[in-house]
Amino acid sequence: xxxxxxxxxxxxxxxxxxxxxxxxxxxxxxxxxxxxxxxxxxxxxxxxxxxxxxxxxxxxxxxxxxxxxxxxxxxxxxxxxxxxxxxxxxxxxxxxxxxxxxxxxxxxxxxxxxxxxxxxxxxxxxxxxxxxxxxxxxxxxxxxxxxxxxxxxxxxxxxxxxxxxxxxxxxxxxxxxxxxxxxxxxxxxxxxxxxxxxxxxxxxxxxxxxxxxxxxxxxxxxxxxxxxxxxxxxxxxxxxxxxxxxxxxxxxxxxxxxxxxxxxxxxxxxxxxxxxxxxx
Length: 280
Description:
Keywords: Oxidoreductase. It contains ten helices and ten strands.
């Protein structure tokens, strides 16, 4: 059971990944971003998730440096994730994209590097590149994002290294149970982006009723639901009180009945693109 903010899951290659982190999707470069990352680290977060396409890696890097100094911890105590974008999935272009990312972040290595989307006909070449980066020690772990079961099965045909993580849209309206079971069977850690459905679930009466029983917010209840199902979460926020509140979920536990009620909200509804039908 996950009992505190620094608790980790052990990926299939032995690397420890925090169960809980800060996401920075749609947070623009600038002081607000730097402050958010610094705030998260000083309040005990040990995982930061960004991507090349977010166009905010420099600010994230500055926030990391300020946060590490303020918290008095080393770089090795932080887990930093970035992702290679769809237009950079060739071998040389993925190498170049990785180099740009670590340069902007001001880091010597990434803890986790992901293929952002399963672009048909291109993700296998990108995966070969990620395997090279991994074997060379430039990344501690490699994985994918938005991959469905058939994408993973296709990748397995040629992969030398199996993905350690699959980061996907997941929330009570999109539980992706079959994908979760497949990932568990294959020792791939599932990670949820948009765990709060970009805020759309915060007024849900069913979850609010459960939350009230535990004197918690709807957001805290959803994040707890994820953790109790063995899913890593990276909620986004730039406000200090929300960053602190989101992580205050280690002093209660949802009952099996409550978990099933939240599961029952599933409608296979996406707020983001369909991995089988996207155009970027």
